[in-house]
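Operator note (shift B, R.M.): manual run for Exocyst complex component 7 requested after the automated queue skipped it. Running by hand, logging everything below so the morning shift can see what happened. Input copied straight from the record, untouched. If output looks odd, do not overwrite the archive copy; leave it for review.
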Amino acid sequence: MEQTQKRKQEIETRLAEEKKRSEMIKENLEKADQLTNSMVTILNHFDERLHKLEDTILPVHRKTKDLQRLQDNIEKTLTSLDHVIGYHHVANDVEPVLRQGPSRQVDKYLHSMERLVKAVAFFSENNPDSPELNTVNTLFSNGKDGLEKEFQAQLSRHTKPMPPLKVEELIKMENKEDESFIHLPEKTVSDLSQMSEWLSGPGNSQSFVKAYSDIRSNNLIKTLNGMSDHIKGNSNTGRKISNAISTPKKPGNRRARTFDRRKETGLGKSSHAPIAEE
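Run finished. Output pasted below as returned.
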């Protein structure tokens, strides 16, 4: 009997514990349901607010995007206007440089000519009847003429015939290089190269080639003529020396021969002088 009662008490105790545990689980489930309902309510409110925010933001976003597009278009328009206005200012900007000429400012002069080339192309394509096209065409023509004259002037100024002695020295040196004779200064060579490159390119001119050919060929002729005169001079000098050595001396007159004979015998002019009396 005692064992049965103990067993019964144990069972009752376990049932009581299980009952408490069940009640606790039930309470926790109820709390979880409450929390879930609260979370669902919060999420529903949040979703509603998101929809309201989206309804508010989307129009603003569209307007902002439209404004951004307008701003980009305005910036592009201003850039294009600046580009076009720049071509209208080319004539006034480059005219003082062209008036001064390319002497001592070849780089600046060529830069101005490049601007004129672009301006001519722009007005020819976009507004061929504009007075600006006539202006830049005139400046371009005058500038090209000035460049051709400067090319010819610099080349003429620094082109000098080679001295005959230097030619002889170079001939004796055969294939060896000689840097002691400078045909053209380095700065002049640089300027002439830049001018010729522009004239043969954007300038579309070939007259400078003829000028170069004429000046350099004339200089070569002068060098050859100088060498020829030098050779002739040396030949005449050698002939005179040879003649002087090979030709015998001509005999002197009778008086000179008599004087020489008296000189040899010890008699001079003084031997014929009167002797003073004692």
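Quick read of the result: The chain has a mean pLDDT of 81. Residues 9-74 form one domain.
Leaving this for review. - R.M.
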